[in-house]
Amino acid sequence: MDVWNVKNLQEDLMSAPDVAQLDRHECRTCGYVYEPSEGDKKGNVAPGTPFTELPVTWRCPNCRAPVSKFGNIGPREGNTVGFTENAGYGLGLNKVSGQTRSLFIFGGLLLGILFLMSIYLWGN
Ligand SMILES: [Zn+2]
User: Fold this and answer.
1) Which one, 8, 21, 37, 102, has the greatest CB density within 10 A?
2) pTM of whole model > 0.70?
3) Which of 3.40.1190.20, 2.60.40.3950, 2.20.28.10, 3.40.1390.10 would CATH assign to domain 24-74?
């Protein structure tokens, strides 16, 4: 029992399919937003299905546009959505926003690992 377990856990966390799984995708044709945590009831898509795992036959429930008409607008949380939404429009600042965002995500991950380790140490 040991540090080894914690290390594996850490690797799991690092390699886990991260937030990208929860990225929402917007239909460029009609503005419909696919929300992975909700899925698509009309299209028989279960809640929690990432956009990337939708069947190739899936189409926008609103205007029938194919998957290729959709653009990634990032996960639904706070103000990061706005940054991601503008990311495709070539503003120099977006790069900074993206990096800051990654930093937050990584920092949160690190905090989580530290937290888990402290529980582990406490248990001893
Ligand atoms: Zn649409």
Assistant:
1) 21
2) no
3) 2.20.28.10
